[in-house]
Write a structure and sequence with these properties.
Three copies of one chain form a homotrimer. Chain A contains 18 helices and ten strands. The first copy, chain A, has 399 residues and is mainly alpha-helical. The longest helix of chain A is centred in the C-terminal third of the chain and has 22 residues. Chains in contact: A-B, A-C, B-C.
Amino acid sequence: MPQLSLHPDRLFPADPDTRAIARELYAQVAGLPIVSPHGHTDPAWFASDAAWTNATELLLAPDHYLFRMLYSQGIDLDALAVPRKGGLLPDTDPREAWRLFAANWHLFRGTPSSMWLDHVFAEVFGIAVTLDAGSADHYYDTIAEALASPAFRPRALFERFNIELLATTEGAGDDLKHHKAIRASGWKGNVVTTYRPDSVIDPEHDSFARDLARFAKLSGEDVGSWQGYLAAHRKRRADFRDMGATATDHGFLSARTADLSTAACEALFAKVMGGKADAAEAELFRAQMLTEMARMSLEDGMTMQIHPGATRNHNARLFASHGRDKGADIPRGTEYVEALRPMLDLFGNEPGLTVILFTLDETTYARNWRRSRAITPPCALARPGGSTTARRACAASAK
Amino acid sequence: MPQLSLHPDRLFPADPDTRAIARELYAQVAGLPIVSPHGHTDPAWFASDAAWTNATELLLAPDHYLFRMLYSQGIDLDALAVPRKGGLLPDTDPREAWRLFAANWHLFRGTPSSMWLDHVFAEVFGIAVTLDAGSADHYYDTIAEALASPAFRPRALFERFNIELLATTEGAGDDLKHHKAIRASGWKGNVVTTYRPDSVIDPEHDSFARDLARFAKLSGEDVGSWQGYLAAHRKRRADFRDMGATATDHGFLSARTADLSTAACEALFAKVMGGKADAAEAELFRAQMLTEMARMSLEDGMTMQIHPGATRNHNARLFASHGRDKGADIPRGTEYVEALRPMLDLFGNEPGLTVILFTLDETTYARNWRRSRAITPPCALARPGGSTTARRACAASAK
Amino acid sequence: MPQLSLHPDRLFPADPDTRAIARELYAQVAGLPIVSPHGHTDPAWFASDAAWTNATELLLAPDHYLFRMLYSQGIDLDALAVPRKGGLLPDTDPREAWRLFAANWHLFRGTPSSMWLDHVFAEVFGIAVTLDAGSADHYYDTIAEALASPAFRPRALFERFNIELLATTEGAGDDLKHHKAIRASGWKGNVVTTYRPDSVIDPEHDSFARDLARFAKLSGEDVGSWQGYLAAHRKRRADFRDMGATATDHGFLSARTADLSTAACEALFAKVMGGKADAAEAELFRAQMLTEMARMSLEDGMTMQIHPGATRNHNARLFASHGRDKGADIPRGTEYVEALRPMLDLFGNEPGLTVILFTLDETTYARNWRRSRAITPPCALARPGGSTTARRACAASAK
């Protein structure tokens, strides 16, 4: 079987001179602890510290970058053991799903998914041969055996990976019980939450009603009035800060903000809560709420993250059968300059506000950037000759 | 006179390591036969196998990449022997036109046109000196002499170039007589057609009325009714498949699709045929017809090619004097995500549908792509570090 | 203190083969005189030939690329000695401002500003150590001493820099007294002006009323009528040509042009002058005036420069306190194809018209270009493998 080997210079420049610089820079950071401000992990892992069961459950079924590629090549999601809407698991043997994935692993050649997973296979699980149909069972068994051992429990891996800080993301209707359990357990791993209130701000979100009810209950506020609704956000932001949160996170299609009068806010809010807001009013409500979140960030010091530009759930049939986040999200061009103006006119000169803007469209760097106290991607300017990846990383981590 | 020499590594990377990989990859494909799915040639060449006459007629007058550059530098199209509207040839000595071109050949330094034509000059015609005012007559005479010989007839060149398959493109009002003649001739060259119905779908096309009449006659259907018009498309698609077609081709400004009710289609069609459709209705009709073409592709298995994004005939004066395709087309940014949604909502999960999307705007890859069964450019993801050209080629050929 | 050294290959490719070509090309042009068609300097410098006083006044306070970066990091503009609205200087010791700048110079690592200024420090002022808090006073004193010497007067530097031609830019309400003084002085430096009438064309410009009055007075025309207003432009263009101008310069947000009837122009003009034009009418007026400027360029032979795409004065608070051009301009995506069509339909085939289009968005090259007699960026096509910078430079200088 072909050997799995990771080239120590992978992703470095081909040119010897610049590769030497890349090696030198990498050597300076390779041993540092990981600080992961946007960690995309489930805090339940660290709360329960339960063992994962197998490669399909851990690596394949939750990874939309993997199954959407396979789906595009005509492979059914059920055959990959991807959960259906509501979490219902298809009746698929996870080993068979893994074999199917392994037989199609060549489709990922040269992709970030392939580089990432080969690293996991070689460095985390110590596997020495490449993944293909012939090695599928060897992979499945090796990974299952490892996962059953104490060294592969979530907390053990957290420590092995030398993670100094990991920030997860929870919705405004989350009771944060897993974060509380982590703290109550006495384990020393530094896992914090992030306040992501999309589902109680976006009237078009499919969980809006359900999450709003939880939001009301957890905050104890009357979310039926504009002032009560804002108070509920303040309350929950405080709850999240109690669980270590230092940031909020907002992911709507556009970056639009607004600066409406209180009366206009109240009228718009009444429409939204009455289920009478049309698409334009829903958009305006999201815009006003971005501004309100900035205002609250000035009050409580939380960093504000905005990542617009993803058209979500574009495949109507998949959305109906499998629900959100099943690989039919598409990046789209995004306007920032006029969209952010109302919020910046209010708070853009405040030294106390930190906003991180993400983009899914690298050509944005050719056009839209602004220097203000609040929003600044210094690396975009600071590394004009740098690679897009470097610039993107800089922008994301700026200020 | 300066020697014309083609560097064997032209267009390869300058870096020695990556150049070595490029050489190795190229060596694996350089000797393969050519499969040309989008061949832009005239089937009459292979039907009649008549000799071409001279360099101006063959290489200069039909190539809008050449004459538009020269026109931009103040050179008149008449002086380059470019046909006027309706095919009328200006009273220009083709040798004089070639001399004018040769004297300005330096303007093309570093362009794709220059690389392409130098290859033709050196490899096809065996010319050993560079093109300039001094070598213009040598070029003209050498090329004329070659073209008069049997080895330079269209079919002989087809075989010399090792072409396994060549697909031309014909309109819905074309009787395919050249393709029939090729088949009737007994020649073994594999030349197939492609169904390109733009001029009978776009009410704003300047040949709409004329081509619609031919379309009606050739199909034998009543194209005055919506159902008859659709039936005529089905009939002609079958005619084209009889002449080897495996694909259709659609080139409107936008990629917009629509999903109207039958009643709405009939009402819109009546307006279009009555000459009463305004610009928005013409756009909507094109959009609905892209969806109809996808529906028919599902029925008959033809691959669907969509290449939006060219603003055509932008120079009003040139369009009036010289007609379509005379070099005043301009690439333009194109939206795909919302434009294709109606068609994808209908057919995007059908394993039997293959759609190839082209783009004239490479920055599209930074934004808009989607994984579905129907539309997938795997190379865009598969080669994140690849050159734009490679990615474009991949996307174009992706299933 | 760390040495300040300029690598002779800075900004050249890292790859040895292409770097060798870059060295060879650079050697061919490095010694040539400078022809600066867009010089962004103040003609008063060369009229009075007065000495500059210190580093802050010369290099820091007028450079919005410097102070906007520092402002984004929380540094007050007053502390940097940046003039307030109307030119009022804050009560800041220029040496203290320079020390503050020096202590933050590390923020500019890798930026064009840093490369540019390090060149100035080392080559023009002969400073041998890098700028930081510890060398701030050394820099300040060295520069002040140099500026006090005859060799650092504006005219002396003009000659030392081997400038063959320098074009400044003046508004339509400028009396050109500095250019007249330069000519009257007998000094041989070739400094010409450029006609930039933005502030008397854009009804939304904050100096519109004031500059229009000067424009009327200097032209002696009745700018209250459409014909008189056009006549005033013709008069002032002639004034500018008398001071060496060969070009005009136009910087509105969009590249939109228009072709209205005379009656429509007169009605629109009346609204604009009556202060009754809304935003759409102001935009239409600017569009029509771009076409009028092209028409006049055909008459008088001046090259027309259009550089759209900057959203100006985005920071409302800074605009109120510090006025225009204080670093809150943001590049924005710009549409050219439809925007320029009305003007090109009129004049796009005229051999006598030269238009230079600028873009602040490099991705424009992936989409919008057109070959016509009037507008042609040949380098965009001519160097498909060239760097963006090279292509931008080409486009800017293309005839």
